[in-house]
Amino acid sequence: MGVTRQKHAKKIMGFYKHNFQFREPFQVLLDGTFCQAALRNKIQIREQLPGYLGGGTQLCTTRCVIKELESLGKALYGAKLIAQRFQVRSCSHHKNPVSGSACLLSMIEDGNPHHFFIATQDQELSKKVKRKPGIPLLFIIQNTMVLDKPSPKSLAFVQKLQTNQLVPEYQKQSIVELKEKEGLVKQEGEKRRKRKRAGGPNPLSCLKKKKKKTQEGQEPSAEKKKRRKRKRNRVKAEAMQSVQKNEGE
Asked: What percent of the chain is predicted at pLDDT more than 70?
């Protein structure tokens, strides 16, 4: 595996991990065209893909893909055997199977909540996948598996996210659930408002009341002044009586 190709894949995987929350094991949905190309080019998908993507993988397909390969007869018998080795993901077409491409498109509706990769050689399917943001696309070229660069739709989506103009699809369901639990959210808010910060006593409550002290301090001085005044009046009255007595004598 070329060093340049590995670096290219690592950079793209970083984009999807960071912006669309892709995590190991990476789930790869394969159609019949990809299985046929791998068989023709002698590519060991199960052995080579984890090393290329840089992590564990879960290879999977759908019943519609297998039904489509069975209907095409001996020409794609080898591709059918390869697809049957993979995990079969449930689709909504149990009673009425659809084409492999239509089935894979239905698996990535509503914002690709299961974080599927799409592995296909179908050009029409690839174009439709690129119209949806956050869908990694794998294909085979020159005997090599290639992880396609992020589509313009994915890049525009991420740019809008960074400017807070769009809510990711995978978060919309969580937002709806939170709205349904609005009562619980309010209770938590009330509890937070009631919480008091731990600390010592209020420093203002420790201060002495100056106003009362002043009043208490003023009352004794007023009483003293009254006493002094009464004493002076009494002395003055006694002096006047003494003078009058002397004059009478």
From this structure: 69
- The secondary structure of 183-230 as a DSSP string is HHHHHHHHHHHH--------GGGGS--HHHHHHHHHHHHHHHHHHHHH
Chain centroid to CA 124: 34
Q: What share of the chain is helix, strand, coil (3-state, %, to 5)?
A: 60, 10, 30
Query: From CA 57, how far away is CA 37, in angstroms rounded?
Result: 19
DSSP at 119: E
Cα–Cα distance measured from residue 115 to residue 178, given in angstroms and rounded to the nearest whole number: 22
Q: Which of 189, 190, 112 is nearest to 154 (CA)?
A: 112
Per-residue tokens: 72: 């095409």
Give the mean pLDDT of the chain.
83
Confidence grade of residue 27 (pLDDT, cut at 50, 70, 90): very high
Strand 137-141 versus strand 144-147 pairing type: antiparallel
Contact present, 118 and 104 (Cβ < 8 Å)? yes
On whether the CB atoms of residues 139 and 148 are closer than 8 A, the answer is: yes
First-to-last C-alpha distance (Å) of the chain: 146
Peptide bond into 25 cis (omega under 30): yes
DSSP string, 27-90: EEEE-HHHHHHHHHTT--HHHHHHHHHTS-EEEEEEHHHHHHHHHTGGGGHHHHHHHHTSEEEP
CB atoms under 10 Å from CB of 151, counted, come to 20
- Entry pTM: 0.66
Judging by DSSP bridges, how do beta strands 26-30 and 57-62 pair with one another? parallel
